[in-house]
Design goal:
By secondary structure, this protein is mostly helical. The protein has one domain (2-85). It is 78% helix and 0% strand. The chain crosses the membrane at residues 21-45.
Length: 97
């Protein structure tokens, strides 16, 4: 209580201190402190968590795209290799007649 009186005296608060005034001042101080802490947490979440998550999502998307492209290329190579090992042409009519 004495510390509160000294603080209010520095602010040139000349009213007599009652428990209601002290209680109100503590509530206002607590509300300001909690709101500042919540804003700090929101800032940390926005700057560090969301940026990393979006970077990881973009990286994962690029990796899966490269993986799908490699699978398609592998299938094409296997199909061409199978054709070269056992060529089979399908003709609708005999080209030699």
């Amino acid at each position: 209580m004495n510390a509160v009186r000294k603080f209010l005296a520095k602010l040139k608060f000349n009213k007599s201190l009652t428990i209601e005034i002290v209680w109100t001042a503590e509530l206002v101080f607590s509300a300001i402190l909690i709101s500042l802490l919540l804003l700090g947490d929101l800032w940390l979440y926005k700057n560090f968590v969301l940026d990393k998550r979006s970077a990881n999502a973009a990286e994962n998307k690029a990796v899966s795209l490269k993986k799908n492209n490699l699978k398609k290329i592998g299938e094409q190579v296997r199909a061409e290799k199978a054709f070269l090992e056992n060529p089979a042409f399908i003709f609708t009519r005999d080209p030699f007649k």
